[in-house]
Amino acid sequence: MRPVSSTYVISGIAGLYVAQSVIGGVTWSALPAIMRLNGVPLDRIGLVSLIALPWVLKFLWAGAIERYRLPPVGRNRSRTVVAAGGIVSAAGLLVAGFLDPAVALPLLACLTVVAFAAATVDIACDGFAVETLARKQHGWGNAAQVGGAYLGSAIGGGLFLYLSGLYGWGPASWATAGLLLLLGSPFLFGAARDLPEEVRSHVPSLGTALSRPELRRGLLVSAVFVLAQKSALGMIGPLLVDQGLDAGRLGLLNGLGSFFVGLGAAVFGGICVRLFGVRSVLTVALLLQAGCLALFSSAASTAFVPLAITMTAAAASTSGIMAFGFVALYAQFMRWSDPRQAGVDFTLFQCMDALVSLTGGVAAGQIAERFGYGPLFTVTSFLAFAAVPLLLLATRRS
Q1: DSSP state of 74
Q2: pLDDT tens by residue, the chain, 398 residues
Q3: Domain boundaries, the chain
Q4: String of DSSP letters for 348-366
C-alpha cells in the first residue's frame, strides 16, 4: 500500500469511529429513555438490544467483506465499502425520524438496518487502520478508536437526547443523519482516496481464526466480562427516568459522562494496563461495576439513596468503569489477533461482545418488567463479583 499521511489516516478512522458510536449512543443510551418517556413498557424497551444482532452476526460476512475490500489484484476498496455503509446509515436515520418512538417494532426494524450498515463499515475501518498505520502508529490509532467511541457516545447518547427533548425525535434524527455524512468525509476524501493497485497473497479465513487457541480463549474472556459489565446498562436510563429525571438532564448526564468521564477513564485505563497489566485492570473494573450495580439495587428498592448519588453512579458505571475496563479488554484482543487477518479476528471478539450484550439486555428488560429494578441489579452485581475468578482463570498464562 502507498504511504499515506498518518494524519489523514488517523483523522479518517477517528471520524468513522465517532460516527459508529453516534449510532450506538442513539440506539442504546438515548432510545431506551425516549421510549420510556413515551410510555413503552420495560419488556419492549429490552428489545432494543436486538438491534445489536448485526454486530453479533457480522463475522458471517466479515471474510466476504475483507475479500472484496482486498482483492488478489487491484485497488483497496475500503472507500467503496465505507461510502455504501454511510449512505445506508444516514438514510435509515432519516426514515427513523418519521417513525413514532412509542411504536417500538417499526423503529427497531429501521435501526437494525442502520446497525447492519454500521457493522459492515466497522469491518472495513478496522482492517484499513491495521494495514495502513505503521506499527509505531498503532497507539495513535487505538487512541482514535477509544476517543472516537466516547465522543460519539456523548453525541448520540447525550446531545441527541438533549435535542430530542427540545425539538422532538424527528429533528434530532435528521440532524444526526447529516452529521454521519460529515463525519465520513475525512476518510472518503482523505485517507482512502487514490489507493494504488496491489497484488495480495493472503486470503482471510474464518476457519484459520477459529483454529487458534488464543482466539478461542479470547471469546471466553469476552463473554464473561461483557455479561458482567453490560447486561444491565440498558435499564439504568429507564431507572433514572422512573425516579424523576427528565430527558434534558439525562441527556446532559450521558453526554458529559461519555465525553469527560469516559475519555479520562480510557486514558487512565491505558496507563494502568502499561503499569499493572491487563488482568489487574479487568479485575478492578469488575469489582467497581459490581459496587455500582449494588448501589442501583439499593436506589431502586429503598428511599435512602439520593437521586444525585444514583446519577453519579450512573455516569461512573456507563462511562468511567466501562471505558477503564474495555481499554484493557481490547488491548488483550489485539494481542490475541493474527496481524495477517486482524479484521476477521477482531470481528469475532466484537461479535461475542455483541451477542452477550444482546441476550443480556433482553433478559434484563424481562427481569425488570416482571420483578423490578432491585432484583435485576442485585443479580447483575452478583454476576460481576462471580466473574472475577473466572476471568483470572481464563487469562492465565499458558
Answers
A1: E
A2: 445 566 778 888 889 989 998 998 888 778 888 888 888 887 788 788 788 788 888 989 988 898 888 888 888 888 899 999 999 999 999 999 998 888 878 888 999 999 999 999 998 888 787 777 765 665 566 667 777 887 887 788 778 888 888 888 889 999 999 999 999 998 888 777 777 667 777 777 888 888 888 888 889 888 889 988 888 888 888 888 887 777 677 777 766 666 778 778 877 887 888 788 888 989 999 999 999 999 999 888 887 888 888 888 888 887 788 888 887 887 777 778 777 777 788 888 888 887 888 788 888 888 888 888 888 999 999 999 999 988 888 777 54
A3: 6-394
A4: HHHHHHHHHHHHHHHHHHH
**HSE of 251 in the Cβ direction (CA atoms, 13 Å)?**
20
The cell for 226 is 461483557
Overall CATH class of domain 6-394: mainly alpha
Judge whether 307 and 243 are in contact, CB under 8 Å.
Answer: yes
The rounded distance, in Å, linking the Cα atoms of 88 and 398 is 44
27 in Cβ contact with 358 (< 8 Å): no
- SS3 per-residue string spanning the chain: CCCCCHHHHHHHHHHHHHHHHHHHHHHHHHHHHHHHHCCCCHHHHHHHHHHHHHHHHCHHHHHHHHHHHCCCEEECCHHHHHHHHHHHHHHHHHHHCCCCCCCHHHHHHHHHHHHHHHHHHHHHHHHHHHHHCCHHHHHHHHHHHHHHHHHHHHHHHHHHHHHHHHHCHHHHHHHHHHHHHHHHHHHHHHHCCCCCEEECCCCCCHHHHHCCHHHHHHHHHHHHHHHHHHCCHHHHHHHHHHCCCCHHHHHHHHHHHHHHHHHHHHHHHHHHHHHHCHHHHHHHHHHHHHHHHHHHHHHHHCCCCCHHHHHHHHHHHHHHHHHHHHHHHHHHHHHHCCHHHHHHHHHHHHHHHHHHHHHHHHHHHHHHHHHCHHHHHHHHHHHHHHHHHHHHHHCCCC
What's the residue count for the chain?
Answer: 398
Q: HSE on the CB side for 208, CA within 13 Å?
A: 14
Rounded to an integer, what distance in angstroms lies between the CA atom of residue 5 and that of residue 334? 23
